[in-house]
Amino acid sequence: MIASIGGGSSTKGLLKYLFGPGEHNEHDNPHIVGSWDGFAPDPGREPGVTFTQLRDALDLRVVQAGERAPKEHVWHCSVRTASTDRLLADEEWDHIAQRIVAAAGVAPEGDPDGCRWIAVRHADDHIHILATLVRGNLTQPRIRGDWGRVENELTLIENELGLFSLAHTRTKDRHSAPKRPTRAELRKAERRKLPQTPRETLRTAVRQSLAGAATEEEFLRRLAEHGIRTSTRRAPSGDAIGYKFALPGDRNAKNEPVWFSGSKLDPDLSLPKIRARLAAGAAEPVYPDLNEYTWPASGRYQASTSIDHALVTLADDQSDGRTAATISGSIEILDALATTSPVLSRKEITQAARDLDRAGLTHTRAAKTDLRAMCSAARAVLNAGPAIGRAEDGAAAATILSSLVLLAIVIAKWHAARGHEYQAQAANAASDHLRAAYARHAAKPMAVLDLHGGHLPQPAQDRQAAAIRQALPADQATRVLNENGWTALAATLAEAEAAGHDPAVLLAQAAGRRELASADSATAVLTWRIRRDAGLPTTPAAAKPSTRTGAARTRTTVTGRTVATPVNPAAQPQPLAPPAPRPRRR
Question: Composition bias, kind Basic residues: at what positions (predicted)?
Answer without folding.
Answer: 170-181
